[in-house]
Design a protein that fits this description.
By secondary structure, this protein is of the alpha/beta class. The chain has a single domain, classed as Rossmann fold (3-Layer(aba) Sandwich), CATH 3.40.50. 34% of the residues lie in helices and 18% in strands. It has nine helices and nine strands. It has a nine-stranded mixed β-sheet, sandwiched between helices. The termini are far apart. The relative contact order is 0.14.
């Protein structure tokens, strides 16, 4: 519990500041907007993975779901979603002050993510705490009950508080579906918050952070180093992480950790959507390759 309480406790003042700054921005700049979806490539997904009639989620139009604890989720599918085909799932956690609809507008990921064949889920923000981690950890399993999801290809993504959730759930939550990839930007988790935490078995982690972030300066590189240590990668000197993107080398088989130093202000989502989705997509392709090589 110590590590979780530090995420929700030691960082409490920063989290509150983030909630105020980003929450105000949410209210005045980001109005809810339903973004268009796109057709998924025919090659994406596992055909006939779910029985006909076993998944009743609405296709393309957006679906309002709730977890068993009442957390609201906004779900978007590829325009040509087939309820018997298992698709990759991208769970996107909201920054402080954003509900699920404003979150979709803020990230502006729906069209491109569905074009690549992902089911995309946006949940309402819940202030950082142990309870929040447990509440948000139920999002993926809730989606899987209503939609045909490839459980080998679930990814988490988030910015600010959302980034803290994307990283924190696999580390601290007690019950969750396995996650293949994590992308966290401007997250409020520092390396010190992770000391003593058990390493989760996530194959791929991408950390994007501005070293001069207004709320969480210098958090990202240390967090990336923690993930790299979990993946048994060769350490990278701190001075090598001052600009651009660096992938850690020598990682354990099937593991990948990348850190990107960004100049983006805290309240802005980095303009790196293609790179983020490529990172997730490459890991999913690796999953398929490993499966076929095992036969």
């Amino acid at each position: 519990m110590n590590e979780v309480s530090r995420v929700g406790g030691k960082l409490g003042f920063a989290a509150i500041a983030g909630a105020i700054a980003v929450g105000i921005l949410a209210q005045f700049l980001y109005q809810p907007a339903i973004q268009p979806t796109a057709d998924a490539p025919r090659a994406v997904g596992l055909n006939e993975a779910c029985a006909t009639g076993s998944r009743r989620g609405h296709i393309d139009l957006g679906d309002e779901l709730r977890t068993s604890s009442g957390l609201r989720i906004w779900v978007r599918t590829p325009h040509n979603y087939n309820a018997t085909t298992a698709y990759p799932l991208l769970v996107i956690f909201a920054p402080a002050g954003f509900d699920r609809h404003r979150s979709e507008s803020f990230y502006n990921l729906t069209t491109e993510a569905t074009r690549r064949g992902n089911i995309v889920a946006y949940s309402d923000h819940v202030s950082l705490s142990r309870r929040a981690l447990e509440l948000q950890s139920a999002v993926a399993s809730t989606i899987e009950q209503g939609y045909c999801v490839d459980q080998r290809a679930i990814a988490y993504l988030g910015h600010s508080d959302g980034g803290s959730m994307a990283e924190g759930i696999p580390i601290f939550a007690t019950k969750q579906l396995p996650v293949r990839a994590v992308v966290a930007t401007a997250a409020g988790i520092a390396e010190d918050d992770l000391q003593g935490a058990k390493c989760p078995g996530i194959p791929a982690v991408l950390i994007i952070h501005n070293p001069a972030d207004e709320l969480f300066p210098d958090f990202g590189s240390g967090t990336a180093a923690w993930w790299a240590n979990c993946a048994r990668c060769t350490p990278i000197p701190d001075h090598s992480l001052v600009s651009g993107c660096r992938s850690f080398k020598g990682c354990a088989a099937g593991k990948s950790v990348t850190y990107c130093s960004s100049a983006t202000p805290h309240r802005t989502f980095p303009k790196m959507v293609p790179q983020m989705l490529n990172f997730i997509e490459n890991e999913e392709l690796n999953v398929v390759a490993r499966k076929h090589s095992a036969h």
